[in-house]
Write a structure and sequence with these properties.
GO cellular component, one term: nucleus
Protein name: Transcriptional activator protein UGA3
Strand content: under 5%
Organism: Fusarium austroafricanum
InterPro entries: Fun_TF (IPR021858)
Order of helices and strands: HHHHHHHHHHHHHHHHHHHH
Distance between the termini: 31 Å
Helix content: 55-70%
Structural class: mainly alpha
Oligomer: single chain
Number of strands: 0
Subcellular location: Nucleus
Shape: globular
């Protein structure tokens, strides 16, 4: 099913006769009307929301309409031109940015979320808020729309949560995750922490009510929740909130499952979730108070290093792990390699500190070599943010800094979300302070001055 909102509007408009004799086809473009109010012709074909069966004037059937893509009662009542633009922006731009799958024909951010948004006002507010968050840097007027839709969604979600049951838990969960994404991707807000906590409670509800037998869209939501939770550990330096006790995970190597993994993670999820173990180790740095505790800490660090060295063992190595997602796309391989070296660098920093040693320089060069092999605008480009920040925070020569800065500036346009700009601000702050300080801790700068920024 083609879920392009622009196509939907085109299908609607063809059902309305237009008197072309009243249109001056020679008029300049700026003189033509772009009125998208409720009086516009294509909206005339939308019936009022059907009354409850038995009420006066209640239609006998919803199938009397000529529209087949969505039932008329599910078409959102959007009279605001801004909101129509936002929904179209989500369906044509934002959903593609969110998906890290090189195969553009399978995008769960479209196939699952758009139908849910069209059928539910709460989810629609969340989708429009996310779309406005993406657009607000290029279109400053959209900042107010983002705040408005976040406010409406938060209010509706607060009213729903005390009454969540099996029929509404998916609405509550997807709304919670979309609001979390809006905050995370903005890069300046720490509001995502509360939404992640709410998502954990809702996932526990899902587990208790479904006994682990999840429908397709629920499986996608579980993957998305775990992805966002792990992504946030780079900000919290704590273990993820959501673990195997919260959700029931049953390995199902189906095509749909693989496509969802590729869309959410981009790289093999076994490697991505190694960030959980690395940041769990980071949370224990305060225990290093004497020789005995230092020995225990280093022993655990060696275990994490061993897992990182063998993360692809079950696949027969790196090539097999990459092929499980996309056997024909080299960008997946390069993104995976860059992420692995970024994790190695982060583990070294947690264990040994932030001095620019030869091992650090080696990690930085491997990250940049892999990153430069990924084309601009690739669906895997967003996987480079964490590796680029790790390399940028540890590089010490102009050539390497230019590579990092250039790629982040490109990603500000191709990805578009504010957290990319915040990430560039972070590495540039590190470089400036390195002019006067011998050792600069990028993680401390992020923690003390950019508390809402998560790197993933």
């Amino acid at each position: 099913m083609d879920l392009n909102i622009a196509d939907l509007l085109c299908q609607m408009s063809t059902a309305v006769p237009v008197d072309v004799t009243n249109v001056d086809m020679t008029a300049p473009l700026q003189d033509l009307t772009w009125d998208l109010t409720i009086d516009s012709g294509w909206l005339d074909i939308l019936p009022e929301t059907p009354l409850i069966e038995g009420e006066e004037g209640s239609p006998k059937s919803l199938f009397d309409t000529t529209l087949t893509l969505y039932t008329p009662s599910l078409v959102p009542d959007m009279t605001s031109p801004h909101d129509k633009a936002l929904l179209n922006h989500y369906s044509t731009i934002v959903a593609s940015v969110l998906s890290r799958n090189p195969n553009v024909s399978t995008n769960p951010y479209l196939s699952y979320l758009v139908p849910m948004a069209v059928s539910n006002p709460l989810i629609l507010h969340c989708v429009l808020a996310l779309s406005a968050t993406h657009w607000q840097k290029l279109q400053p007027d959209m900042r107010d729309r983002a705040l408005y839709h976040k406010g409406q969604a938060t209010k509706s979600l607060a009213g729903l949560l005390p009454h969540v049951d099996a029929s509404s838990v998916d609405v509550a969960l997807v709304s919670c995750l979309l609001l979390c994404m809006s905050e995370l991707f903005d890069g300046t807000s720490a509001g995502w922490k509360l939404h992640l906590q709410g998502a954990k409670r809702l996932l526990s509800t899902v587990k208790s009510q479904t006994s682990g037998n999840l429908a397709g869209h629920f499986k996608f939501l579980v993957k998305l929740a775990r992805f966002l939770d792990s992504a946030a550990t780079t900000s919290t330096c704590k273990p993820p909130l959501i673990d195997d006790k919260t959700v029931t995970t049953t390995p199902e190597p189906t095509e749909d499952s693989t496509n969802d993994d590729a869309a959410v993670y981009g790289i093999p999820k076994e490697l991505f979730h190694m960030v959980d173990r690395v940041n769990n180790l980071a949370s224990k740095r305060g225990t290093r108070v004497d020789e005995a505790s230092e020995a225990l800490f280093r022993d655990e660090a060696e275990k994490v290093q061993g897992r990182l060295d063998n993360w692809a063992y079950d696949y027969g190595g790196l090539a097999g792990a990459v092929a499980s997602l996309s056997p024909t796309n080299d960008d997946v391989l390069h993104a995976t390699t860059a992420f692995e070296w970024a994790l190695r660098l982060r583990l070294h920093q947690i264990t040994e500190g932030y001095s620019l040693t030869e091992k650090v320089s080696d990690c930085v060069q491997h990250i940049l070599d892999s990153a430069q092999k990924i084309r601009y605008g690739s669906s895997l480009e967003s996987c480079l943010l964490f590796p680029l920040v790790m390399a940028g925070g540890a590089c010490n020569c102009l050539e390497q800094r230019m590579v990092v800065q250039d790629r982040l500036m490109i990603m500000e346009r191709t990805c578009g979300f504010g957290y990319v700009h915040q990430s560039r601000e972070l590495v540039e702050t590190v470089w400036k302070r390195r002019e006067t300080e011998t050792m600069v801790n990028w993680a401390r700068i992020r923690y003390e001055e950019m508390g809402g920024l998560a790197l993933y």
